[in-house]
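Tutorial handout. Part one gives the primary structure; part two gives the three-dimensional structure as tokens.
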Amino acid sequence: MSRIQKRFEELAGKGRTALIPYITAGDPHPDLTVGLMHTLVEAGADILELGVPFSDPMADGPVIQKAAERALVHGVSLRDVLTLVHAFRQKDGDTPVVLMGYLNPVEVMGYAAFAAAAATAGVDGVLTVDMPPEESEELVAALKSQGIDPIYLLAPNSDAGRIERICNLASGFVYYVSIKGVTGAAHFDIEPVRAKLAEIKAQTALPVGVGFGIKDAETAAAVAGVADAVVVGSAIVSRIAALADDPVALTGELRAFTASLRTAMDQERLET
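Part two.
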């Protein structure tokens, strides 16, 4: 059983929704990433999504694009990200870590070599944004051979056929993009999300996480009432950008914000 599956089963037994915060590896500085990962877990994160910096992050809005740029200034590569995960694992052997990134660095390393290195580092899942399911069999095979869950995105316009195809390839969980657009969108409406999740859950027993557009405790709580996981990215990364020059204040802010999300989500589940 993967760490991701185990974590979702534990949470389901407690009637809780997973909180999955996103940060970009190396932002604002590589020396801070592992500490921020531990802070997020201590504040209530159940799974961590760690972004692999890339020069052309097509699915990301301006906030996360700038985070990638800040990390790339320090030369953070895919191998560096794996080194950071390995360092995180020295103190935390339980919290699942999902890498979120783009195909080019993985192709450069090679699917088999990447999967082996990721497994050695302690990676549990990989979300490759620009890898369509129709072309992903080789990568999926390499990941699954190492016990790593391939994570896929579903969108508001994903039809029944595509939902079925993706859910048959995925493991761990599937990630529903709640809006048509990039990360960090301002508008969020829970009712279309609720309807689409019902459609997805009719086709898979995998947990379904929801991300894009979740910016505060209120929206996180709303999603916690209908989803198995809440993914929060731009709202966290914007706080990193604002306090990049003050690591102490940054740590305190991320701790407080993450705890506020956790509290609101748990309260919503108690009331539903």
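Part three, for discussion. The first strand starts at residue 18 and ends at 24. The first helix runs from residue 3 to 14.
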